[in-house]
Amino acid sequence: MMMHQGLGLETFNDLPRRKAVHALYECCCSHTWASRVADARPYRSHAELFARADAELGELSDADIDHLASTHRPVGRTCAGMDPATQSVFIDACRMYIERFGYGYIVCSAALPGGGDEPREVLIDVGHRLDNSHETERKVMRDELAKVNRTRIERVLGPEEGWPPY
């Protein structure tokens, strides 16, 4: 669970640097990334913040990306909605993925068709990605990390139009 949620962009921009870095670190687990994104404040819109977050993620070294990948929970253990047989197939696919690429399968399930609610969507995704070259999968994995970051940043900021008045 994230400590910083629904701050709003203006409040985020006004946070002391240390607190802004902490809020961003909760999104990405990279002090380098969080520091760079925090130091580029103030942001005029969510889109501007997302663009900067994506750009800074793109600048991280492969070693930094490997560290980020290692901080994500193994997906095979988090798909509780799957029936036991499907979960077994998925865990095997995740194991094959690790053996092939050297890091765990990362997906922003919210970005899958249907929002990742269907176990079949995740199985199809990992199956397709197992066919990728190492270079292609590295790019896909970075893209998935960016999507995860965006989802988490959205949680930190809350809705762009703000919360409705009570």
Q: Please mark out the parts with pLDDT under 50 across 5 or more consecutive residues, or reply none.
A: none
Radius of gyration, rounded? 17 Å
The SS-based structural class is mainly alpha
Biggest sheet, open or closed, and with what strands and sense?
none
The beta-strand count equals: 0
Overall average residue pLDDT: 86
What is the multimeric organization of the chains shown? single chain
Question: Could you explain how this protein is built, in words?
Answer:
- This is 2-oxo-4-hydroxy-4-carboxy-5-ureidoimidazoline decarboxylase.
- Residues 13-154 form the Oxo-4-hydroxy-4-carboxy-5-ureidoimidazoline decarboxylase domain.
- It comes from Rhodococcus sovatensis.
- The structure is a single chain.
- This protein has 166 residues and is an all-alpha fold.
- It folds into two domains: 9-66, no CATH class; 73-149, Oxo-4-hydroxy-4-carboxy-5-ureidoimidazoline decarboxylase (UraD-like, Orthogonal Bundle).
- It has helices at residues 9-14, 17-28, 31-39, 46-59, 62-71, 84-101, 119-129, 134-157.
- Helix 6 (84-101) runs parallel beside helix 7 (119-129).
- The two termini are 25 Å apart.
